[in-house]
Design a protein that fits this description.
The model has no long low-confidence stretch (mean pLDDT about 85). The radius of gyration is 17 Å and the shape is globular. The chain folds into two domains: about 80 residues, no CATH class; about 55 residues. By secondary structure, it is mostly helical. The chain is built from six helices and two strands.
């Protein structure tokens, strides 16, 4: 693969490397999908990693990610620096704090783990708040 593919990256990778990128992209996609329901896993970084891996390994999967009706526009807007919709930010922050709060209070009895969960919640919240708000 000498020429630039549709994502604009020139890459010349051997078949084994393309397979590794494909596997990494698929694992990352799975973690991103899990991140939708598990607040400890961040969705956006995993989806962006999937797109980057598929860009280097599978033109078909790369196009599928960007045209997917559930998260295609979300990824495209995020990559273009347009941010995410306010409704998504609010939903993500509220769900994050509800689920991590529940975990800290009812499920996790180890103070060190509770502190880590709290730090993750603060970090994700700061990241989401700093993102541009997409209006469109």
């Amino acid at each position: 693969m000498n020429d630039a593919n549709s994502c604009g990256i020139k890459c010349r990778l051997s078949k084994p490397k393309r397979v590794l990128f494909f596997v990494a992209g698929s694992i990352s996609l799975g973690l991103g999908v899990l991140g939708v329901v598990l607040p400890v896993l961040p969705t956006t970084p995993f989806l962006l990693l999937s797109v980057a891996c598929y860009c280097r390994s599978s033109e078909r999967m790369y196009r599928w990610m960007l045209s997917n009706k559930l998260f295609g526009r979300y990824i495209s807007n995020y990559r273009a620096g347009k941010g995410i919709p306010l409704k998504t930010k609010i939903f993500a922050v509220v769900l994050l704090w509800l689920l991590i709060g529940y975990s800290v209070v009812f499920l996790v009895g180890i103070l060190f783990v509770q502190v880590i969960l709290f730090a993750v919640a603060v970090g994700v919240t700061v990241h989401l708040v700093k993102l541009p708000t997409f209006r469109g």
